[in-house]
């Protein structure tokens, strides 16, 4: 969004929302009963693993909300005052590999622009 | 080196600025702008994701940007720069004197926060259900085979600092024959720290995580000469690349070999020969120092109402640590012509060959010191899977049907003929035939749309040779010698019975987009990308991928003072692939 409020004042803003999810379907492993028939009952020792929850181990679920806004005000033909801000909020609902990565970031920037 | 880089950039900028003012006294327009201020950053919770390219501290820092523009009668010079903090800065200088001299220099730097893999899922231990009886202690039903990890620097703060200096220079040496010299140099410096993980394969899998130094330099240089000789445009280009790692090597202790259950130190003679490293500290995660040189000769000649262009090239790359080399030879020819005023034909042929050194792998003899005659020599020659000849042929017909509609059809054939993979001297040939149709429709200035549909049929895609393990119970392994009762783990490699791949044999894709601008106040853009592929030629697996990306964007400008832009895109990817689960007991 850009808005020129007056000849001296200009406003801008932006909202960004990003949602990213990743998951596996349930993994269907070989049926132990079928293997038992194939091998005549000769199962590898301890071949009774449970894979029920394996597909959920590496789920990812991130939500990022970013708000940006700012203004510029022309003090004189050669000098302009600027003020900007940025806020980002990241929510990690799964936490994998690096742990929970939820966090926020705030930045406020201000200064003067001089044209020669 | 970092300070030198910045110093060189500033000096060049100052020299150019002064030389330009003397060279072109008839300056018509000149402007400067300086923005000076500062910023405050504040973080909460985990900073390395949300502030991936920031210093990551709660602090107030100065910030500035300086811009300069000079436009003369025969020259233009532009300088833009932005200093965010000591690790994030950008500056670019562009200069042009008529068409004779062009110069560009760009510096940019950034800091990247690197996360630490917590290795949380890297923990497992063998379970013995028969021993898990009522009242039994866990020590009795937990087996000796296990996977453990060790993070030596928990909570470490890793980050890498990247600086890049890109310089481009072009000068007209002679107006006769239009002889032009071009030079491009790119230097990348990367320093900092990152996580390095050593994997110790012994009686139990053991991962060791530690801080590792990052310190490497890349140089990329391209020098070329272009000229017009008679009816030909000809050129020569030399390329040089160097990747030079300077970091101190990381060291890890590789566990001593022991039986998984018996007392520590027993049966080392049995388990030691299974490992190349055991009970020793050794370097790991070493980056190779690599150097590449290339030469390319090119030409272009107008033919009738079209042109013929071509190039022939040679490149050689070498790992300076191991002295392994890779040579490549390439050639490409394009021919384009108008069949009639509304129909254009573009034909392309490209052939290239890659040839990598083979290497002899000399390994300790397996169980050489034991007395049961089960000796095995694992020495082998590794032939590169890169050895191949690539052939690419295509023809495209583009026809302007009327003022609104342009249609094109593309037919192509690619072949990758591998010399040594998966079998030495008898590699596979991957062949791909593809068809593509494209429609461009433009109705007045307000509405335009394009649609591209592509189909690919591939035979023998790249495979993992005998990558699929045995079906349970279908094969039986015998001991190496009649006197032995043992079947060794490495013998299970013989049970691999089928090549596998995640590469498709059929690919269908489409890309549609549309823009509608009913007036100066509103514009609408929509698009849809879709791709589906599959491989149902495999006996044991079905491989499928699908991807859809719809998008929409609206820009509304109700008045000269207000504008609003909104957009939405959705990306959906789904794959069906083989999954490999690591199990104890093989």
Summarize the SSE layout with pairings.
The complex is a heterodimer of chains A (116) and B (586).
Chain A: E1 2-4, E2 9-22, H1 32-38, E3 60-76, E4 79-92, E5 103-115
Antiparallel strand pairs in A: 1-2, 2-3, 3-4, 4-5
Chain B: H1 2-23, E1 27-45, H2 47-50, E2 59-72, E3 75-85, E4 88-97, E5 101-114, E6 124-127, H3 138-141, E7 142-151, E8 158-174, E9 179-201, E10 205-229, E11 232-245, E12 250-254, H4 268-271, E13 280-284, E14 290-303, E15 306-319, E16 324-340, E17 343-356, E18 359-361, E19 380-382, E20 388-400, E21 405-418, E22 429-443, E23 447-459, E24 464-468, E25 498-500, E26 506-519, E27 522-535, E28 543-559, E29 562-569, E30 572-576
Parallel strand pairs in B: 7-10
Antiparallel strand pairs in B: 1-2, 2-3, 3-4, 4-5, 5-8, 6-7, 8-9, 9-10, 10-11, 11-14, 12-13, 14-15, 15-16, 16-17, 17-20, 18-19, 20-21, 21-22, 22-23, 23-26, 24-25, 26-27, 27-28, 28-29, 28-30
What does this structure look like?
The complex is a heterodimer of chains A (116) and B (586). With 116 residues, chain A is mostly beta strands. In chain A, strands 1-2-3-4-5 form a five-stranded antiparallel β-sheet, with no helix packed on it. Chain A has one helix and five strands. Chain B has four helices and 30 strands. Chain B has a 24-stranded mixed β-sheet that branches. Among the domains of chain B are: 1-100, no CATH class; 115-286, no CATH class. Classes of the chains: A mainly beta (116), B mainly beta (586). At the A-B interface, strand 1, strand 4 and strand 5 of A face strand 1, helix 2 and strand 29 of B.
């Amino acid at each position: 969004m850009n808005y020129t409020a007056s000849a001296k004042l200009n406003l801008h803003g932006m909202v960004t929302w990003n949602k990213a999810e990743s998951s596996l379907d349930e993994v269907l492993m070989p049926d132990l009963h079928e293997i038992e028939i194939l091998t005549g009952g000769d199962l590898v020792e301890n071949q009774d693993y449970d894979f029920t929850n394996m597909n959920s181990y590496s789920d990812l679920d991130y939500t990022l909300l970013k708000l940006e806004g700012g203004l510029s005000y022309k003090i004189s033909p050669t000098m302009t005052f600027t003020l900007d801000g940025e806020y980002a909020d990241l929510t990690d609902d799964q936490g994998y590999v690096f742990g929970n990565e939820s966090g926020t970031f705030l930045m406020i920037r201000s200064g003067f622009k001089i044209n020669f | 080196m970092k300070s030198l880089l910045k110093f060189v950039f500033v000096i060049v900028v100052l020299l150019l600025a002064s030389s330009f003012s003397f060279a072109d006294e008839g300056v018509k327009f000149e402007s400067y702008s300086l923005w000076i201020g500062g910023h405050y950053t504040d973080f909460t919770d985990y900073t390395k994701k949300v502030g991936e390219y920031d210093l990551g501290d709660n602090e107030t820092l100065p910030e500035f940007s300086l811009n300069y523009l000079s436009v003369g009668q025969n020259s233009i010079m532009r300088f833009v720069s932005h200093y965010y903090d000591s690790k994030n800065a950008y500056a670019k200088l562009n200069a042009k004197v008529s068409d004779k001299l062009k110069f560009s220099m760009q510096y940019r730097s950034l800091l990247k926060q690197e996360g630490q893999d917590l290795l949380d899922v890297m923990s497992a231990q063998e379970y013995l259900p028969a021993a898990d009886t009522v009242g039994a202690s866990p020590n009795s039903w937990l087996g000796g085979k296990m996977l453990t990890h060790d993070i030596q620097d928990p909570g470490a703060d890793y980050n890498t600092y990247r600086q890049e200096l890109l310089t481009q220079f072009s000068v007209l040496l002679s107006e006769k024959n239009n002889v032009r010299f071009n030079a491009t140099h790119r230097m990348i410096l990367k320093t900092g720290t990152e996580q390095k993980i050593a994997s110790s394969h012994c009686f139990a899998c053991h991962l060791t995580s530690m801080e590792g130094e990052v310190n490497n330099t890349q140089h990329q240089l391209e020098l070329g000469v272009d000229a017009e000789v008679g009816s030909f445009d000809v050129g020569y280009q030399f390329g040089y690349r160097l990747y030079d790692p300077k970091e101190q090597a990381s060291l890890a202790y590789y566990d001593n070999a022991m039986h998984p259950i018996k007392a520590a130190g027993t049966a080392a003679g049995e388990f030691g020969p299974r490992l190349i490293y055991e009970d020793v500290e050794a370097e790991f995660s070493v980056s190779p120092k690599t150097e590449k040189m290339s030469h390319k000769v090119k030409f272009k000649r107008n033919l009738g109402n079209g042109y013929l262009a071509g190039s022939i090239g040679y490149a050689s790359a070498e790992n300076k640590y191991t002295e392994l080399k890779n040579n490549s030879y390439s050639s490409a020819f394009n021919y384009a012509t108008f069949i009639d005023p509304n129909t254009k034909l573009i034909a392309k042929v490209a052939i290239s060959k890659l040839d990598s050194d083979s290497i002899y792998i000399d390994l300790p003899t397996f169980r050489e010191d034991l007395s049961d005659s089960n000796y095995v020599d694992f020495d082998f020659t590794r032939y590169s899977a890169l050895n191949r000849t690539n052939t690419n042929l295509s023809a495209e017909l583009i026809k302007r049907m009327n003022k609104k509609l342009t249609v094109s059809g593309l037919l192509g054939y690619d072949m990758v003929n591998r010399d040594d993979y998966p079998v030495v001297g008898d590699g596979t040939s991957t062949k791909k035939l593809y068809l593509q149709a494209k429609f461009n429709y433009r109705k007045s200035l307000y509405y335009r749309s394009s649609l591209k549909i592509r189909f690919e049929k591939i035979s023998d895609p790249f495979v993992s040779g005998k990558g699929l393990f045995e079906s349970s119970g279908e094969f039986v392994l015998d001991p190496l010698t009649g006197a032995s009762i043992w079947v060794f783990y490495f013998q299970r490699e013989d049970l691999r019975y089928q090549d596998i791949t995640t590469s498709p044999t059929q690919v269908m894709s489409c890309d549609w987009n549309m823009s509608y601008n009913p007036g100066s106040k509103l514009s609408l853009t929509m698009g849809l990308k879709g791709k589906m592929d599959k491989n149902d030629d495999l006996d044991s697996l079905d491989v499928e991928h699908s991807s859809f990306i719809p998008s929409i964007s609206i820009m509304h400008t109700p008045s000269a003072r207000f504008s609003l832009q909104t957009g939405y895109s959705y990306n959906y990817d789904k794959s069906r692939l083989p999954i490999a689960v690591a199990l104890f007991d093989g």
